[in-house]
Design a protein that fits this description.
single chain; mainly beta; five-stranded mixed beta sheet
Length: 138
């Protein structure tokens, strides 16, 4: 299932559309087994990825974004997910402080293309290991 919804500053109350939630603060939550989420906004958005609901998410960025990862199982289990971002290099992407990147630095995303990132955790989401699966995928 793919969901794409444009969210602008004109949002006045909460809107829920089959797993896509947009609030006045331009917060978008990913849940209900959605595989595709269009993140479009006239202002910066907060994006929550709920890994209890899916393991593959996509976002076509149209502005700055701040990400949050939720829904990791307890520390007796590990989990991971793929995040596919289009046009991420055009905007400032703020990752959760819990993400540890290869060499300690978040990757530079592609300005006009598709990137895939993988995140894994083995401690209930206290630490997420982030790494690049591919940049500028064609």
């Amino acid at each position: 299932m793919a969901i794409s919804k444009i969210v602008t500053n004109s949002v006045t109350d909460e809107i829920t559309i089959t797993g896509l939630t947009a609030t006045r603060a331009n917060t978008i939550a990913v849940n209900s087994n959605n595989y595709s989420l269009g993140v479009h906004s006239n202002s910066a958005v907060n994006v929550t990825v709920n890994v209890a609901e899916s393991t593959f998410f996509t976002a076509n960025l149209a502005n700055n974004s701040t990400w949050d990862f939720q829904g990791a199982p307890d520390s007796s289990k590990s989990t991971g997910f793929v995040l596919e971002i289009t046009n991420g290099g055009n905007y400032t992407v703020t990752w959760p402080g819990s993400v540890d990147w290869v060499d300690g630095t978040a990757p530079t995303l592609t300005s006009g293309g598709i990137d895939q990132l993988v995140f894994t955790t083995r401690d209930a989401g206290t630490t997420w290991f982030g790494f690049v699966a591919g940049l500028d995928i064609k």
